[in-house]
Fold this sequence. Notes:
This protein is mainly beta. It has one helix spanning 2-19; strands spanning 25-29, 32-34, 37-39, 44-47, 50-54, 74-78, 85-88, 92-99, 114-116, 133-143, 146-152. The strands form 4 sheets. Strands 1-8-11-10-9 form a 5-stranded antiparallel β-sheet, with no helix packed on it. Strands 2-3 form a two-stranded antiparallel ribbon. It is elongated.
Amino acid sequence: MKELATKVEKLSVEVMTLIGHRLTSLTLIPTTYINGIPSIELLSLQYTPQVYTAVTGHQDNANPRDHGQLRPVLDHKPVANAKSLNISTEKNKVSYKMSPSIGVLKDDIKLSQFEGIKSQNVTKSTPEVLENALIEVVDYSVDGGILTIQYKH
């Protein structure tokens, strides 16, 4: 049986070299599900720049020494006209099952850009249209018929 499996694998490799290194399809290997929909996670942080300001007229009746002149109470407020900023890690990974699973090498795949579609569950007759977001590929690998992409958003 082991010899037969070896012969089949050898013949499959020969067929793939004759046909070429053509990737025909990718199937997502989901890492999470959102409402039953296979998904991938984007680990990122969104924040708006803020500044700290001293609060005037603060009263602390419980212990007035805690917030005296040496320790003013601080609060934060957004910087005027500041836009939200995004920070994304380059450690995000997504994996795909390749078809065919043999014969396709990393050099056969060129990933200049990768597009993610923002999806939503439709609860009304005319859902709003969401923009697609480009995902920047940091690195990718092919191993055992699995394409693993490392990316940032």
